[in-house]
Amino acid sequence: INAFTGGENAIENGNIIMVTSSQPNEGKTYCALSLALSMAKEKDLNVLLVDADVAKPDVLNTVGVKGGKGLIDVIGDDSIDLSECILKTDIKNLSILPAGKKHSFTTEKMGNLIDELAQRYHDRVIVIDSPPVLASSASSVLAMHVGQILFVVEADRTSEEEVKESLQLIKNCENINLILNKAQIHTGNKRFGSYYGYGYNQ
How much of the chain is helix, strand and coil, in % rounded to 5? Predict the structure, then answer.
């Protein structure tokens, strides 16, 4: 993941990173949070974690933070400003934009809001926890507005056909990295991965 690479290797909107998967429960929220936390530890690097999985928002529950208004509220009400919804965390360089309250909206408006985030917070890394590709059309729309995608694949569960179909739907983003999640490593008679819970990310 190269958020601010310059020169000939520069990525347009490279600081906007979408994290998604084919199906629910593959560990994408865990991976999005892990990525955001690791980047927030970098000196002088601010990170905004956006919960765009509005059908199944899980970022706030995962970090144990309570929030009210969020992404969907901004989309549905022009009087609500983004800054009103962004939550600060105990980690100095990490803030969160919750999903907000559920109500009807168009995925195109979500894409427009991501563009607004990119313009307003161009100096931040924006990590978006997106809906699963095969469960929502939102991911296909968001793929047109982000610079990079981290695609989570659950080991021993996600089929090759699901991966291929998903990648086809988000192909508008030219920079896609795959991560194998919940994998268990076998070395001799020892089984790494389940040790101390590793390999069972949620």
Answer: 30, 20, 50
HSE at residue 72, side-chain half, CA atoms within 13 A, is 19
The DSSP secondary-structure symbol of 86 reads: P
> Comparing 64 with 166, which gets the higher pLDDT?
166
| Spatial CB neighbours of 161, under 8 Å, sequence gap ≥ 6 | none
Residues 6+ apart with CB under 8 A from 56: 24, 131
Strand 190-192 to 185-187 pairing? antiparallel
More confident position, 184 or 16: 16
The dihedral through the CA atoms of 132, 133, 137, 138 has a sign that is positive
The count of residues in the chain is 202
Q: Is the pLDDT of residue 195 over 60?
A: no
What Cα–Cα distance (Å) separates residue 192 from each residue in 26, 153, 157, 158, 196?
19, 19, 18, 20, 9
Residue 41 CB partners (closer than 8 Å, separation 6+): 93
Q: Is 82 exposed, middle or buried (0-12, 13-18, 19+ CB in 10 A)?
A: middle
Q: What is the pLDDT of residue 6?
A: 58
| Other Cβ atoms within 10 Å of 68 Cβ, number | 11
Q: Could you tell me the pTM of the whole model?
A: 0.85
Compute the distance between CA of residue 171 and CA of residue 45 in angstroms, rounded to an integer: 28
140 C-beta neighbours (distance < 10 Å), count: 21
